Amino acid sequence: MNGRPALLSRPLIAVALIVLAVLLDQAIKVAVENYLPLEEPVRLLPFLALYRTYNLGVAFSLLSGLEREFIVGMRIVIVAFVLWLWRRTPKDRPLAHLGFALIIAGAIGNLIDGFLWGHVIDYILFHTRTWSFAVFNLADSFISIGAFLVILDEIFGPKKVNP
Question: pLDDT per residue over 126-146, tens digit each?
Fold first, then answer.
């Protein structure tokens, strides 16, 4: 590498990506809230439906019995921790930096939901006749894809050479 940080390792680029992802997530959630019926599937494909529901917990409704303030606080700590990881990651690890940016964007998107609505708006449902996956949203997808990219970077990214 020529000593310059990879594009996604630059803070301004990462912030721009995070802001765009959060804006897209929030715009879709406003549309879902305004136009999609509550808990009535709108079938798109035999295995995919739009299904507006509310998640009071974290991913897959885990911790839904806990106080809202605890959930919000936990999300803030997660964002801070991932920001710390992003800053500590070497500049030649663009996959990890992209993954961290997506995780941060998804966490912020769901954090905004908690502040605005008191719950997270979920609307994507994969299903078959006898099975359905948890209902999720774009922010959840950002978090999952981001985590996958960080894992890929750990497996296939440049390795630190010990002297």
Answer: 999 898 888 999 999 999 999
User: How far is residue 22's CA from residue 85's CA, in Å, rounded to a whole number?
Assistant: 20
Among the listed residues 25, 92, 113, 122, the single catalytic one is 122
How many Å apart are CA 81 and CA 150, to the nearest integer?
Answer: 14
**Catalytic (active site) residue 92:** no
25, 92, 113, 140: the catalytic one is 140
Angle between helix axes 11-35 and 138-156 (nearest 10 degrees) is 150
- Judge whether 140 counts as a catalytic residue: yes
Please tell me what DSSP assigns to residue 92.
T
- On whether the pTM is more than 0.90, the answer is no
Q: Distance between CA atoms of 74 and 78, rounded to whole angstroms?
A: 6
